[in-house]
Specification:
Layout lengths: L1 H17 L8 H4 L12 E5 L3 H4 L8 E6 L3 H11 L4 E3 L2 H6 L5 E4 L6 H10 L3 E4 L7 H14 L3 E3 L16 H10 L7 E4 L28 H5 L25 H17 L9 E5 L13 E5 L5 E5 L10 E2 L4 E3 L3 E2 L4 H5 L12 H7 L7 H20 L3 E4 L4 E2 L3 H5 L12
Parallel strand pairs: 1-2, 1-4, 2-3, 4-5, 5-6, 7-10
Antiparallel strand pairs: 7-11, 8-9, 8-14, 9-10, 11-12, 12-13, 14-15
Helix pairs in contact: 6-7, 7-13, 10-13
């Protein structure tokens, strides 16, 4: 099996350069009778098997052959879910190096996402990563570079741009994009994301100040859990689930839900290849360790389009999308007369690859990949930078750096605690 998996991975790498025309290669092309072609059998290893990570076991079309966690209780729960007998790892680097693993799933806290994605890319593995894609803009740029160099397939685990009804809109994003593309709303557009348009910013993901030091539980390797993050004395609230409330690991409700909510907006506004040029923030001064709440964050693009994050749900009558010619409200209600009949006359949005296994087999990019995923994650990280500094920021979308603001640019490339680096 190890020999078959190694041959399979060699085929995938070579197909990027010399066999892109073949989507599924017959068995007889690759070898003798009984050889497993890439289309027949794909395996995965899951790094981080807490509640979120165990949700990765159920995705169809692959077999989980390896799991990794620095908490032994997570590993035990994962083995139970999988029926036992699965290869366990404490160090993610050993899982990534395993010849039995085709696809690496990363379901750790965000401060590990960039580093692990890059290591998986170097090892020639395809990558399925939880949102947010990376904790900083700089890490996202490094992930893009690594994947470009090594030819991996990458999927970010937020799916609303291509699947399911989109929260309070109660329709798939494809229908919203179709409306935007018709021009019936006009241009530029303003998108408001708030409780009143169907989106919850989950402000219960806030940190606690002045946490007392607690005893590290025997089942947790806290030093490895921290990894590249600055050392802070252990307190249960800093880890598992509630880690979202601390800047070192995530960014509160915006870090948790921002890419879910804003990636589809980026898509239907046609902004997959650019970022806003300004971000304005209205929020209390943030604690240097514990993430707090905010009232309003406004992103503005060069053409005047805006995304408004209304944290205090101030505008009860806000349209989800407002343009000079019309408005679209929660539940796909609109002030445009006879909207459904008019919309039916227009073509559907361009098709996308929405099955990651198809991407792995054909070497064609997934609908939400490292390129457009980095841009929507940049929205999140721009907002978090403005929050931490409590001021408006200007951004160079092409060069991906803040303009005339050294403190903001230091948040793009944040140092990692040794021995970790990217």
């Amino acid at each position: 099996m190890k020999e078959q998996n190694s041959s399979r991975r060699d085929f995938i790498k070579k197909s990027v350069v010399g066999a892109a025309a073949f989507s599924i290669v017959p068995r007889f092309v690759l070898g003798g009778q009984g050889y497993l072609a890439p289309s027949d059998h794909l395996t995965k290893g899951v790094i981080g098997v807490g509640n979120m990570g165990r949700g990765h076991f159920g995705y169809a079309g692959t077999k989980t052959v390896a799991i990794c966690d620095v908490d032994t209780t997570h590993l035990a729960a994962a083995q139970k879910d999988l029926g036992g007998g699965i290869k366990e790892y404490h160090d993610f680097r050993d899982l990534i190096k395993s010849p039995e693993v085709d696809i690496v799933h990363i379901a750790t806290p965000p401060h590990w996402h960039g580093l692990m994605s890059i290591e998986a890319a170097k090892a020639g593995k395809d990558i399925w990563c939880e949102k947010p894609m990376t904790r900083t803009i700089g890490e996202g740029k490094k992930v893009k570079e690594a994947i470009a160099q090594h030819g991996n397939m990458f999927r970010l685990n937020t799916w609303f741009r291509f699947k399911d009804d989109f929260y309070g809109m109660n329709v798939p994003v494809s229908k919203i994009k179709k409306l935007v593309d018709t021009g019936m709303l006009g241009w530029p557009l303003k998108v408001t994301i708030s409780k009143h348009t169907g989106f919850d910013w989950k402000f219960y993901w806030v940190g606690k100040e002045n946490l007392p030091e607690e005893q590290v539980p025997a089942e947790l390797d806290y030093e490895f859990w921290l990894g590249p993050a600055p050392y802070k004395p252990y307190n249960k609230h800093r880890t598992h689930t509630t880690f979202r409330g601390y800047w070192d690991y995530d960014g509160g409700g915006l870090g948790d839900m921002g890419q879910h909510y804003m990636d589809p907006v980026q898509y239907f506004l046609g902004k997959d290849n650019e970022s806003p040029v300004t971000v304005d923030v209205d929020a209390p001064q943030q604690h240097p360790d514990a993430v707090g709440t905010w009232r309003r964050i406004t992103f503005t693009y060069a053409d005047g389009c805006q995304i408004i994050l209304d944290g205090e749900a101030k505008d009860e009558k806000a349209a989800y999308i407002e343009g000079p010619k019309g408005k679209l409200y929660k539940g796909f209600a609109s002030d445009i007369p006879d909207l459904e009949r008019k919309l039916a006359q227009y073509p559907e949005p361009a098709p996308q690859i929405t099955d990651f296994l198809e991407s792995v087999r054909t070497r064609e990019k997934f609908a939400l990949n490292e390129l457009n995923g980095h841009r929507s994650c940049t929205l999140v990280n721009m907002g978090l930078a403005a929050l931490r500094l409590n001021r408006s920021l200007k951004y160079d979308s092409q060069n991906e750096q803040f303009i005339d603001d050294d403190a903001a640019n230091r948040l793009i490339h944040q140092p990692m605690r040794g021995p970790w680096s990217i």
